[in-house]
Amino acid sequence: MSDCFICKKPLGKNETRTVKAKGVKTLLDRAVAKNDEVNEQFLRTVSEVTVHNKCYCYYVDNRTDNVVRRRGSSSSNLSSVSEAPEPDFDFVNNCFICAKAVQDSSNSRTSRQPRVCIVRNESTKKSIMDVINRR
User: Fold this and answer.
1) Residues 29 and 49 occupy one common structural domain
2) Cα separation of 116 and 103, whole Å?
3) Each residue's pLDDT tens digit, 32-53
4) 20 or 1: whose pLDDT is higher?
5) Other C-beta atoms within 10 Å of 39: how many?
6) For residue range 61-101, what is the model confidence (pLDDT) as tens digits?
7) Which of 55, 76, 97, 114 has its CA at 20 to 30 Å from residue 23's CA atom?
């Protein structure tokens, strides 16, 4: 099984997409905009590529360019694991603080367990994972 060229992690059967010629052009344009020479060279040699869905969305989002520039990352670090979202963590079913499975207590008014809030915003997830990875 091959690896995602963005995060360098193995591709599973779920949560992946095969990017055809038009998508490869989009990825190539983003690599040029990010000054990501390694991925730019790779994308010039392929007509289609399989990547994680979240990695693709993150990589083509032009808002992530400013995050990279503010941190002063070099082009060689753009495709590192720290720059790509963590596709392995399940924000819907796990607590992002302790990583344990949460029980939805929203239907039970007698429960003393605190209310569970699901993190849905991708930029919030990214920020949380960045803080975790820095520790």
Assistant:
1) yes
2) 8
3) 888 889 999 999 999 999 999 9
4) 20
5) 20
6) 887 665 544 444 444 444 443 444 445 667 667 776 777 77
7) 76
22 and 58 inside one domain: yes
Token pair of 110 as six digits: 């007698």
Instruction: Identify the CA nearest to 130 among candidates 77, 90, 100, 85.
Output: 85
Residues 73 and 15 in one domain: yes
Structure tokens at 114: 């605190």
Cα separation of 102 and 118, whole Å?
A: 10
Angstrom distances, CA of residue 114 to CA of 13, 100, 105, 111, 118: 35, 14, 8, 8, 13
Identify whether the C-beta of residue 7 lies closer than 8 Å to the C-beta of residue 87: yes
